[in-house]
Write a structure and sequence with these properties.
single chain; alpha+beta; five-stranded antiparallel beta sheet; about 300 residues; elongated; three-stranded antiparallel beta sheet
Length: about 300
């Protein structure tokens, strides 16, 4: 390297503070980019779990950009006093012009800090329900369930929900804490059916199909009691009797995982159809019209016969 080149580099770093700041900024971006890529490469080798990989992508992204922001501020501003002054002058305008984005960022901070839900949870926020598949600075993404699709199956649509709605809408988390939900299947039989026999059959079906879920739920309840003020509920499946206009309603009540509600209904309905087909004394009811002659069909008239 000749003397002119040495002189040029000396002048560049001595007299040109802007060029030096630009180089320092570029180096900061490059280093954090390389470090993040190396960390993610190691994570991909260690695990194949999608949720773990997703979390590492988000964590490294937030940390990298946060540190880069701090370093760039330190490079381009001599002291924090100038930053505070600058932000103070712009704060009023920013608060008015960027009200919605700032609310969404605040919502993101609340979601990260308090963790009312996380990626993989099934939630309902206001009118929107689905599985959380992504959380970013301004919104989170749901794989929609329900709507025009029966039960809790996916519709195929992705819904991008602003983070700020966490402060104004009611949030329901299907699996936070207890991780199970109660599901009910109403079954209507005619008044003439042997409802006691039907109830015994249904109780056997619901018990056999939810036995494993009940045992697993007991452990989850004990874990949830350490975090929340809850009393231990009755976890055993049951069949509840109720009289409706068209017959006797027997409702199967049982525990299930939120994602498998439709599958459990499918299995139980097939068992019910198979069981009831074996008995002539049990018939399904449906809305019908009938004429009732009290003088012939009343209990008093029947006893006289």
């Amino acid at each position: 390297m000749d003397s002119n080149s040495i002189l040029w580099f000396t002048k560049f770093f001595t007299y040109s503070s802007i060029q030096a700041k630009l180089i320092a900024t570029a180096i900061a971006f490059f280093l954090f980019f390389v470090i993040r890529r190396l960390i993610l490469k190691v994570v991909h080798k260690i695990t194949e779990d999608n949720k773990t990989i997703y979390q590492w992508h988000k964590i490294t992204s937030y940390i990298s950009f946060g540190l880069i922001f701090i370093i760039v501020i330190r490079i381009w501003f001599k002291g924090m006093e100038s930053i505070v002054t600058y932000l103070g002058l712009l704060s009023a305008g920013i608060a008015i012009a960027l009200k919605e984005p700032l609310t969404n960022v605040t919502g993101w901070l609340y979601i990260i800090w308090r963790s009312p839900f996380e990626v993989g949870d099934r939630i309902q926020l206001g009118l929107h329900a689905g599985d959380v598949i992504d959380i970013n600075l301004f919104n989170f993404t749901l794989m929609e369930i329900g709507n025009w699709v029966d039960a809790d199956d996916h519709t195929g649509r992705l819904i991008h929900v602003p983070n700020g709605l966490i402060f104004s809408k009611t949030l329901a988390n299907y699996g936070k804490g207890f991780k199970y939900i109660w599901n009910e299947i109403p079954i209507l039989i005619t008044f003439e059916s042997d409802w006691k026999k039907a109830k015994k059959i249904l109780l056997s079906i619901v018990t056999d199909n939810s036995k494993i879920q009940t045992k697993s739920a007991e452990k989850k309840v004990n874990e949830a009691k350490k975090r929340f003020m809850i009393r231990r509920p009755n976890l055993e499946p049951a069949v509840i009797t109720k009289v409706e206009a068209s017959g006797v309603e027997l409702t199967l009540r049982y525990l299930c995982r939120p994602r498998f509600r439709r599958e459990t209904e499918h299995a139980m309905w097939e068992d019910v159809l198979d069981a009831f087909s074996k008995y002539d004394s049990i018939d399904f009811a449906y809305p019908t019209e009938r004429r009732y002659n009290n003088s012939i069909e009343s209990k008093v008239a029947l006893k006289k016969k």
